[in-house]
Design a protein that fits this description.
This protein is α/β, with parallel strands linked by helices. It is built from 10 helices and 7 strands. Strands 3-2-1-4-5-7-6 form a 7-stranded mixed beta sheet, sandwiched between helices. β1, α1 and β2 form a beta-alpha-beta unit. α4 crosses α5 and α4 crosses α10. It is globular. The two termini are 25 Å apart.
């Protein structure tokens, strides 16, 4: 494997592929600062984590506050995400990256899904502009951490961590202060050994989108509840706000 990159929507997602990062020292890209509703950036914690794995920060590094990305989606600013795909493509090509791993399309959070569109678009742009194949993997965030599809598809990367690697990963996760409570709850729910597997799947975005023809993504349902509670003013919807980003990026790529 040549130079690798990790590309995520929110800082902290990289914990899911911590050992893979230890092995490949990727360039790290992140769309948002992870500030969520409390306006508190998580980039300092991610900075310490990527230093520990030997990764390096790329030029797209906590660019937007979470609220700003949601606003861009609601305002229909697909052009901003097309620009991010082009910028990312330029950075990947300049660094001779031939393998990327990033957030999967799951319908759990619209920014995660848009990040996947940006990744796919950037990979397509690199391949079109340079003729070089870039392997494109995703990893899940809204399923058990050791979940791998059955049967295993061709090209899937399945890393089994030994006890020392698992201990380093869990130590790093618990040291990530903003996510410590989530990590502790997840370990209690899934068990320590669930984190001893890292599964990177060949990205299959279109196959995942087909699910949304049958049912609304989870973020629409949860968003509707929060609007009813008065926490949100408007629901981000796949067809109205997220799909146009995919269409615009694919047209540009």
């Amino acid at each position: 494997m040549g130079k690798a990159a990790v590309i995520v929507a929110h800082p902290g997602h990289e914990l899911m592929v911590y050992h893979w990062m230890e092995r490949h020292h990727p360039i790290y890209f992140c769309l948002t600062d992870g500030s969520g509703g409390n306006a508190r950036s998580r980039m300092a914690s991610t900075g310490r984590l990527i230093d520990k794995t030997g990764a390096a920060a790329g030029p797209l590094y906590g660019r937007y506050a979470d609220k700003e990305v949601y606003r861009l989606l609601l305002e229909g600013r697909a052009d901003v995400f097309v620009g991010l795909a082009k910028e990312l493509a330029g950075a990947l090509a300049a660094a001779d990256v031939d393998c990327v791993a990033g957030d999967a399309l799951e319908g759990f959070n619209p920014v995660h899904d848009v990040c996947r569109f940006v990744i796919d678009g950037a990979v397509a742009m690199v391949q079109r502009q340079t003729g070089r194949l870039v392997r494109n993997y995703d990893f899940v965030l809204d399923r058990p951490p050791d979940a791998c599809p059955e049967p295993l598809p061709a090209g899937l990367l399945r890393l089994c961590l030994d006890e020392a690697a698992l201990e380093r990963k869990l130590e790093a996760a618990l040291a990530y202060l903003e996510l410590r409570a989530e990590v502790q709850a997840a370990v209690e729910r899934f068990g320590r050994q669930a984190y001893a597997v890292e599964c990177l799947r060949p990205a299959a975005t279109r196959a995942m989108i087909a699910r949304f023809e049958m049912e609304k993504p989870a973020y629409e349902r949860s968003g509707q509840i929060r609007v009813g509670e008065g926490r949100y003013h408007e629901v981000i919807r796949f067809r109205e706000h997220v799909w146009p980003v995919l269409a615009a990026i694919e047209a540009a790529a």
